Amino acid sequence: MRRHACLARVFMSLSLATAVTLAARAGSACGYHDDVTMARGILNWAYPDALHVLGSISSAVADRRLPAPSPAGAPPDLFGARYRETVKALEQLAKALGAAGEARPLSFSLVLIEPMLWTRFEFGEKRMRLRVHATGPERDELVLVSGEVVIDEIASGRLTIGKAHRLGLMRLYGPAVRQAQFLLAYAWIGQRPLAAATPEHTQTGSRSQQGPAPLAAATAGADIRRQSNCWGERRTACPLDH
Predict the structure, then answer these.
(1) For the whole model, what pTM was predicted?
(2) How many CB atoms lie within 10 A of CB 53?
(3) What is the CATH number assigned to the segment(s) 49-68+81-231?
(4) Greater model confidence, 206 or 191
């Protein structure tokens, strides 16, 4: 029995490692240029229930919490306007995160589930680098799954990271302690429009641009405490209560 249990754990570890590797390789294709149906399936295997973000986005659109996407039959984006808008929102988000003044900033990867676009946020000492169109996350790294419209709303100051997480519009995967650190540090971001970022994907953070709102930080802390029995040692997503 012990041998069988050990083999089962090894198999599960190898399966997850294979799924993450495949997800990373699939990340080299994105919906701006390729079909991403298979990539989404692999993502949902590597990160269970990641595709629930799409359902949460649809529900939020129906409830008018998010703007409606482009209607079916809209002309194709031949000149990459949508991609440039998304990159701009990602740059604004990265600048806000770098300016948050967090003593121990986190590096993480974000995948936008509509186009399956992977972006890596790499934090160093007073510096932040944004790698758009990354091939996937680093090993044992915090991973965020969200959508284009969600990041747009955060950049526009109409939605905070904390609320996006509570509504299931953003899911976190990885070590529980990193999930908690991320939400405590950044749940307030999106309370007002994010500052425009420079075109380069390397930013310099400044503590004076924006500071955490006490109420939002306190709310995030209360949410995390309520979820402490859920996180534990789990490494899967653990959405907050609505």
Answers:
(1) 0.70
(2) 27
(3) 3.30.1050.10
(4) 191
